[in-house]
User: Fold this.
Amino acid sequence: MSFNSPAQQTGNMNIQRSEAAKIIKNFVAAAESVITSTGQTKVTGRTKAATITQHAVIDGDAAGALSFEGDYGGQFIITFSKDAICEITSNMLFMETPYKNHRDPDVEGAIGEITNQIGGMGRLKINELTGWKAVNGIPSVIVGENIRWTLYGSGALIVHVPFTTPEMNELYVEVAVLHHPMIREMKI
Assistant:
């Protein structure tokens, strides 16, 4: 995943994106690791299809969100299609009969657990690699039909990475970085 294009390679902006990339890459790697290990589902990140934006609206049927604040700050959201989260929860809980309803309490619990583990793993790895420290907020879980959620406004660098499950169901990881140790507030 590369965050530098010719238009971005001027002065301080290149440093900002490089520093933010350290945070983003660790949360994306944590998502893949947690869903594969805890969720018992091998997901494929389509990092070549990743997009960078300053404003994002998330669409899906279920989502887990977690904010982080400290030496760096921002928000992590994982959004699932209902088929993706039912597939992952069925595998996670070793169900012989797959879940069909993404509003089931077990499915909602799985979203919260996956979100919490991704937040913890991403934060720990960032601390090990850089020494930067942050704390996670309490995970939020939203379940519905075609939910829409606006992720951070101006000033944040947002990366959207699509993933697919073995049954070709889709989920998305979005990481917004609002600030990091190199500067107090990101200006893009």
